[in-house]
Amino acid sequence: MPWLVCVAGEDKGTNTLLEDGESVMMGRDPECGIQLLQSSASRRHCQAVCKGNRLYVEDLNSSNGIKFKGKKVHGKTIKLKLGQTFGVGSDLFEFSKSCDQYAEITREVATDLDHQRDSDVFSHYTKVAAEAVERKKDKKKKFSLFWGIFRKDKD
């Protein structure tokens, strides 16, 4: 099954397993399936739908649009093949065949964040999240849950 993986930006390391026909909302709103950290993202920025080996991403008339092939797209739907990327603000998302190759990115991000913070709670969640990625335990769970815990701890 394909994955949507943030490979650069504030949400780097976030990955989501996509079921065929599943729709996932992306934005700053806590109700979004993929909650974004950056302020340049709208509360409900875009919606992604996986159909086979294609990903359809619709900009929901966001303030800043989505970037695809070097162009900004507002209020339209883009179609991605496996391996292609699109941008939301400073974040770059890849429509990927697997997330195995991103386990290292996840560990790197967790380590970088751990160096920035001196918190037993944060260190615990960093370790739990990294172990879950390594074991691929419960692929359906989104790594963005980790970021939600971090954001709450950070405030």
In short:
With 155 residues, the chain is α+β, with helices and mostly antiparallel strands. The chain has helices at residues 103-116, 120-135, 144-154, and strands spanning 3-8, 15-17, 23-27, 34-35, 46-51, 54-59, 66-68, 71-73, 77-81, 85-88, 91-96. It has 3 helices and 11 strands.
Describe the 3D structure.
The chain is built from three helices and eleven strands. The protein is α+β, with helices and mostly antiparallel strands and 155 residues long. Helix 1 (103-116) runs antiparallel to helix 2 and helix 2 (120-135) packs antiparallel against helix 3 (144-154). It has a five-stranded mixed sheet with strand order 4-3-5-6-9, with no helix packed on it. Strands 2-1-11-10 form a four-stranded antiparallel sheet, with no helix packed on it. A two-stranded antiparallel sheet has the order 7-8. The longest helix is centred in the C-terminal third of the chain and has 16 residues, at 120-135. The protein has helices spanning 103-116, 120-135, 144-154, and strands at residues 3-8, 15-17, 23-27, 34-35, 46-51, 54-59, 66-68, 71-73, 77-81, 85-88, 91-96. The relative contact order is 0.18. The protein starts with a strand and ends with a helix.
